[in-house]
Design brief:
Number of domains: 1
Distance between the termini: 101 Å
Order of helices and strands: HHHH
CATH topology: Helix Hairpins
Number of strands: 0
Structural class: mainly alpha
Radius of gyration: 38 Å
CATH architecture: Orthogonal Bundle
Number of helices: 4
Shape: elongated
CATH class: Mainly Alpha
């Protein structure tokens, strides 16, 4: 069984080598750069989402703190009137809001920590991406110049057949001049 496994690995390695030589390295590089750009876009969106969530949680904390302050005012009125039966539900509501506030504060702190970590990772990835992008541009230029040299060495290339507009104008003037000279010569 080990011989079969070894043969299988050998064939697989050869197949991978053939595929690597078939693939155009520049196209693979461009695809890798595109994938990195997409990942950066997703990370940027994640940073924005976490930032928005932090702001939302902070706003919610403020609203709860304001509700607790209103309950404290109402409790003051209840205690001035010596009405404990009205104070009990307010105290219960205040305790619930305090627990909820504590829960939201923990969630905001966790989200803020995530936001900071993801943002730091994003900045690091942007730096890496920029470095890789610059390297890929250099490699692409080298690849293009090497491909051009190989093409020149091994294949016949068609001459440049493009004619510029100014070349047409100059040729037109020459033709007119030539025709005018021929017309003068034939009439004399």
């Amino acid at each position: 069984m080990t011989i079969v496994n070894r043969l299988s690995r050998l064939l697989q390695a050869d197949l991978h080598a053939v595929l690597d030589s078939i693939e155009e390295p520049y196209a693979v590089l461009k695809q890798a750069v595109r994938e990195m750009e997409e990942e950066l876009a997703r990370s940027t969106q994640r940073v924005k989402s976490l930032g928005n969530e932090c702001e939302s949680l902070l706003q919610r904390e403020t609203e709860i703190e304001q509700s607790i302050a209103r309950i404290d005012e109402e409790l003051g009125i209840c205690f001035e009137a010596e009405n404990e039966s009205l104070a009990r539900p307010l105290i219960k509501r205040k305790l619930e809001l305090q627990r909820f506030l504590k829960s939201i504060s923990k969630k905001r702190e966790t989200t803020q920590k995530q936001h900071t970590e993801v943002q730091a990772q994003l900045e690091e990835n942007r730096t890496r991406f920029e470095s890789m992008r610059q390297k890929s541009e250099i490699l692409a230029e080298e690849y293009a110049s090497n491909s051009k040299r190989h093409d020149d060495d091994f294949t016949w290339t068609a001459p440049d057949l493009m004619v510029a507009d100014d070349e047409v104008e100059v040729a037109l003037l020459r033709e007119k001049k030539l025709r005018a000279q021929q017309l003068r010569e034939s009439s004399s």
